[in-house]
Amino acid sequence: MRALLAMLLLALPLRAAEVRVFAAASLTEALTEIARGYEKNNEDRIVFNFGASSILARQIEQGAPGDLFLSADEAKMDALARQKLIDPQTRVRALSNTLVIVVPRIDGKRITDVRQLAEPRIESLALAEPSSVPAGIYARQYLQKLGIWARVAPKVIPTDNVRGALAAVASGNVDAAIVYRTDARVSKDVRVAVEISRAEGPAISYPFALLAEAEQPVAARRFLAHLRSSASRAIFIRHGFDVLR
Amino acid sequence: MSSAEWQILGLTLRTAALATLLIVPPGLAIAWLLARRQWPGKSLIETLVALPLVMPPVATGLLLLELLGRRGPLGGWLHRTFGFDVVFTWRAVVAAMMVMSFPLLVRAARVAFEEVDPRLEQIARTLGASNTRVFLSITLPLASRGVAGGMLLAFARAIGEFGATILVAGNIPGRTTTLSLAIYNLVQLGHDEAAFRLLGVSVLIAFAAVWITEAVLRRRA
């Protein structure tokens, strides 16, 4: 028994820190790839909690233990900043993205313009929950700007996060979804029907920050700096993100 | 309570009641077959019926989603033939509730049928009653308390359904958001006050269901 305990203790590297990263669901693949490379050259371990930024912010408010927050919109970070739950000096606008309309790859309905979402033939539109989740808020604001939100709202199928909207289209159960350009690349079962250009669509920004109550602030800062390195930058770009300076 | 909250309560009670009514005919048939007959494959059916009780509800939901989706065998057929969708509609809410409640009804009804003295049924048969008549005028009335208890349990389980519902029906305010899903939403959004109101409603419903079940079961003949 004692030998077993000793072995377990030896197996834990002495200085390794566990950095807990609360990150927007849309960052899943890019961050996982970055962390895998980082862990190879570093003793720190990166543990992710992916989900809608709104839900993550709520978990942080309720005292969930975490070190970094990588949000998909500024509003969630602002809310945490007001409650002094982040270290404002570490806050950076790190990434940007654009929105696309996706349809099922097989038998998907033909959509060539955003305004066609208001037509009756489009019966269902999956969105990340449009009152709280960033991807849904961005999509709603854009449809409101076009003046078609009132006609689209009754057919909205809200999902927990943007990946839920993507999955609903991939399964063929809804006619279309508005997701990030980067999400559309993740699924082979969806096709991008309309790209909403940066100039036309909402301004999307992903702020990153260290949490005020981080238990591993040193290791967390180290990983935050790595996320801004040229190596990470290349990975973000390959996954379709725009890296902000 | 706000009108949205009343709508949630109404939807939950209506779908749970419909689900309970829809499972009564097949549920009683299977319960009777399990209680009174020996047949090949009986233990297999017995196990299948109990599965939703022990499987993770989300896993059951995934199976339902595959079955009832637009590309699923049943959902695809319904979509082509009748032109309506099941998943992400109230129909999926009812379907999820039915599957999750079914084992509770069957278990309770089976025990109730087994407690009916078979000699009473035999006497009725020697007096010339058909099997249907024996069931309707002897077995069912004598087992009615157990069956009613099972229905209430099934109804209560239907009201609390979450895991299968969120997968197969989504969480669409005003359309598929039931009491459990609404509480989840409200907590996620930080509207704790409204969440606690709905929590209170759930406690009331649960209390009433258990209390009525106990009262029905206790009223011994």
Task: Characterise this structure.
The complex is a heterodimer of chains A (245) and B (221). By secondary structure, chain A is an alpha/beta fold. Chain A has helices at 2-11, 28-40, 53-61, 74-82, 134-146, 149-152, 162-170, 181-184, 217-227, 230-238, and strands at residues 18-24, 45-51, 68-70, 86-96, 99-104, 125-128, 156-159, 176-180, 190-195, 206-211, 242-243. Chain A is built from 10 helices and 11 strands. The radius of gyration of chain A is 20 Å and the shape is elongated. The model of chain A has no long low-confidence stretch (mean pLDDT 93). Chain B is mainly alpha-helical and 221 residues long. In chain B, helix 1 (3-36) packs parallel to helix 5 (90-115), helix 2 (42-54) packs across helix 5 (90-115) and helix 3 (57-68) crosses helix 5 (90-115). The model of chain B has no long low-confidence stretch (mean pLDDT 92). Chain A binds chain B through residues 54-55, 58, 61, 123-124, 131-132, 156-160, 168, 171-174, and chain B through 65, 69-71, 85, 87-88, 170-173, 188-190.
Give a short overview.
Chain A is of the alpha/beta class and 245 residues long.
Describe the secondary structure blueprint for this structure.
The complex is a heterodimer of chains A (245) and B (221).
Chain A: H1 2-11, E1 18-24, H2 28-40, E2 45-51, H3 53-61, E3 68-70, H4 74-82, E4 86-96, E5 99-104, E6 125-128, H5 134-146, H6 149-152, E7 156-159, H7 162-170, E8 176-180, H8 181-184, E9 190-195, E10 206-211, H9 217-227, H10 230-238, E11 242-243
Helix pairs in contact in A: 2-10, 3-4
Chain B: H1 3-36, H2 42-54, H3 57-68, H4 73-82, H5 90-115, H6 118-126, H7 131-160, H8 163-168, H9 179-189, H10 192-218
